[in-house]
Design brief:
- Keywords: ATP-binding, Nucleotide-binding, Stress response.
- The chain contains eleven helices and 18 strands.
- By secondary structure, it is α+β, with helices and mostly antiparallel strands.
- The strands form four sheets. The protein has a seven-stranded mixed beta sheet.
- The relative contact order is 0.11.
Length: 475
């Protein structure tokens, strides 16, 4: 094969992590991609880093206020959104801040976290990715020195510490990435789908992919492991692939038996991805007499097809093991889209309500402060009336949990009317300050960041890797 290169692909996304070792080269006019090995962790990704931040800030909240956030799903959701934004900020800044109004039981919460602290609380997760990289290399029978390129994809690869660990693992090698690491997997899936549907586009006509099975397949029949080994298709086997075994009745005489198929690397009894099939219509016979031939075939889509043929009668059963059980139906997807739209509308209503509530509360607090500062120029009777009105309004805010946006706006106009009638002696500067106290959207948005002003914050001790470059290979 001409110009063959070996590439390691490091894919760390929002919820899963995969590492693949592939070779890319040309044979005559065709571009050929051979997958040598794949390894990963289906339960490691950006959401796990978010969870560490949520735990960190929830503990901080508890330390400050002796209130447990874990019992408040809505507060946890808002905190998680803020943590995700902080995590993204730490990819290019040494410090990130979060500020959430009325996070739990009306308590406003604000805090900050440095990149060094973030790297510390996620250190074990970051380092665990290197174990999977080494496993992928071992499965491919290669060493890290044999890699021509290391390509990183997935949003979580923007985290500087992860890129530095990976670069150091490969002896400070340069890392490569495509323009948008979020879209890379989708582009690859689109190309593979086009190939499977025999698309005639010129862009993919000369492209050929030789894929492998990412996980092993095991089989159990009548609760007994067949033959000496239960592994029918080994992990990293080339696909398409077919395997055939012959089995006899593994229990007392019956005209049916149950076949259980497992996907994964755990022992079959503990496998999570299990499919169960019943082979019926068999002749009633004693143990060991009736034999059944079972053929397993994995196609280019990774779908396992099972054909069971009983030798005596020729009775045949066919099954297809798909992953539809974990996928949503069209109706479920449509319902989720509708629910998301409804929740978005409800979030907008809540946002506007909080803006109105905070504007009213801020106006009253600023007015109280201005009155106290100008107490020598305000008559006692006017001062008492103003303070009573402001404190009365604040108490109304605390008691009005169900008040909507319009109610808060009406109350604000009422307070302003009373205050304007009696504040002619307050300095213009004080009144201007009160008028400017209305909250803007950024004051309650947990996703927005505050400017960092602490120049003495400790910088990360680790040197950041060089900016990612576009891969030289063309796939």
């Amino acid at each position: 094969m001409e110009g063959e290169e070996t590439v390691l692909i490091f894919d760390l996304g929002g919820g899963t992590f995969d590492v693949s070792v592939v070779t890319v080269g040309k044979f005559n006019t065709r571009r050929i991609i051979n997958v040598k090995s794949t390894a990963g962790n289906t339960k490691l990704g950006g959401i796990d880093f978010d969870n560490r931040l949520v735990d960190h800030f929830a503990q901080e909240f508890y330390s400050k206020y002796q209130k447990d956030l874990m019992s408040n799903p809505k507060a946890l959701h808002r905190l998680r959104l803020a943590c995700d934004q902080a995590k993204q900020t730490l990819s290019y800044a040494n410090q990130a801040s979060i500020a959430i109004v009325a996070l739990h039981e009306g308590i406003d919460f604000s805090s900050c976290i440095t990149r060094v602290r973030f790297e510390y609380i996620c250190a074990d997760l970051f380092h665990s990715t290197l174990d999977i990289v080494q496993k992928a290399l071992d499965d491919a029978g290669m060493t890290k020195d044999m890699m021509d390129e290391i390509i990183v994809i997935g949003g979580s690869t923007r985290i500087p510490k992860i890129r530095k660990l990976l670069s150091d693992f490969f002896n400070k090698r340069e890392l490569y990435s495509f323009e948008d690491c979020h879209e890379t997997v989708a582009c690859g899936a689109a190309i593979q789908a086009a190939k499977l549907h025999h698309d005639t586009s010129d862009a993919i006509q000369d492209l050929q992919l030789s894929d492998i099975a990412p996980l092993s397949w095991d089989i159990l029949i009548d609760d007994g492991v067949i033959k000496a080994t239960s592994c029918i298709v080994k992990k990293n086997s080339k696909i398409p692939k077919d395997t055939q075994i012959s089995v006899t009745r593994a229990s007392k005489p019956s005209n049916e038996f149950t076949m259980k198929v497992y996907e994964g690397e755990e022992p079959p009894a503990k496998g999570e991805n299990r499919r169960e099939f019943n082979l019926t219509g068999l002749p009633l016979a004693t143990f060991g007499v009736v034999k059944t031939d079972i053929t397993f075939e994995i196609d280019a889509n990774g779908i396992l097809g099972i054909t069971a043929t009983e030798n005596t009668t020729g009775h045949l059963e066919k099954y297809a093991v798909k992953h539809d059980e974990t996928r949503l139906s069209g109706e479920e997807i449509e319902n989720l889209v509708k629910d998301a739209a409804y929740q978005r509308d409800m979030d907008d209503l809540w946002r506007e309500r909080m803006l109105a509530k905070n504007s009213l509360e801020s106006y009253c607090l600023k007015m109280i402060g201005a009155i106290e500062n100008q107490k020598n120029v305000i008559a006692e009777s006017e001062k008492k009336t103003l303070l009573d009105k402001c404190f009365e309004t604040i108490k109304w805010i605390d008691d009005s949990h169900l008040a909507n946006q319009e109610k808060f706006e009406e109350k604000l106009e009422d307070v302003k009317t009373v205050c304007h009638m009696m504040t002619s002696t307050i300095s213009d500067d004080s009144e201007d300050e009160i008028e400017d106290s209305d909250y803007e959207a950024s004051d309650i948005d947990s996703d927005d960041e505050e400017d960092d002003s602490d120049e003495d914050e400790e910088d990360s001790e680790d040197e950041e890797p060089a900016p990612l470059k576009k891969p030289k290979i063309e796939c």
